[in-house]
């Protein structure tokens, strides 16, 4: 088995050496020097394979193996290579390198195909740097404009727009690179589940029917700084204490909506001035609401807003809520689901129709072209963590299913 995956594993190791630190995992934040180095490495791999490479205004990379009939729409496969801080080795990168492996198999076997096949690397998928996710697929499908790129900034105040220009891209040409849906037959993404269900049920393949969407909030709380020894307890306007109540409120709202598979997370809390002997005058929270039920997500948003209002009023502090992004859950293509099911049955592979709690580039692609998301299990359901891992047999199974699906679509 290892021999059949030798080329795949070599490519994974090559890219995962970029941004890796022992005991710290992999950190390749979007448009960082590590991200750019990994992009260059993959472009060299593509060119060594004889593929044509195209790069658009936000850094999406498309490597193309031409089919016999250039007039036919193409089949697209891919994912992303940027990571969260101290992340794992498989989130995103698995789908890109699996796409490369599919083309390598076809090249070695000299497999004929009428449609062109593309491996795409979507730019800026993770929200870790700019608090805005799936930028590349949003740009490719016409879901964002230049003002969106200027609006979202990192912790140093650098916008996506500025970061793109700094890396040599031209985000002003955004509209030029929006795909024509008539020219894409289908999109496929292979990904680790990022949850425990497949491993727990001992099922090697998940076929996703619905993808959760995020609503992301930035909450600013303004109280009053005071001397920690001199200010009486009953006279304080402690922004951090208010934030702690809101954090618990966010969790309570999530628990109420859990029956509808909605989850709520406070992923970051920053305190100002952040000194041990000062009552915090300001606090900033970042909240992530996710779900596959739009009504449930809207109830969660309303519940969190009510909580913020009530806590702010009780503690006599000011609050401001900024919606960083708001998206709707999406359904994957029923025809694509049927096709992948038939391939799993042909290969005698156990599979499960399921939902994705995490967002992926597929959610944007599915709005304009028939799209599918294929999961393989990850050990312990762990992801966005340096302990993220998968079994080799599951990787092989996932690539086998991806390969057969691409072949069928590319006929």
| CATH architecture heading of the largest domain | 3-Layer(aba) Sandwich
The largest β sheet comes out as: 9 strands, mixed
Report the CATH superfamily of the largest domain. Answer: Zn peptidases
- Strand tally: 17
Q: Determine the strand fraction and express it as a percent band.
A: 15-25%
Give the low-confidence spans.
none
Tell me the Rg in angstroms: 23 Å
Structural class of the helix and strand makeup? alpha+beta
Overview of this protein structure:
- The chain is α+β, with helices and mostly antiparallel strands.
- The chain is built from 12 helices and 17 strands.
- It has helices at 6-16, 33-48, 93-109, 135-140, 146-151, 160-166, 197-201, 239-257, 294-315, 334-346, 362-365, 392-410; strands at residues 20-21, 25-26, 52-55, 61-65, 74-80, 117-122, 184-192, 205-211, 213-222, 226-227, 263-272, 278-279, 282-291, 318-326, 330-331, 351-356, 371-376.
- The strands form 4 sheets. Strands 3, 4, 5, 6, 7, 8, 15, 16 and 17 form a 9-stranded mixed β-sheet that branches. The protein has a 4-stranded antiparallel β-sheet with strand order 11-13-9-14, with helices on one face. It has a two-stranded antiparallel ribbon with strand order 1-2.
- It is globular and about 80 Å long.
- This is M20 family metallo-hydrolase.
- Pfam families: M20_dimer (PF07687), Peptidase_M20 (PF01546).
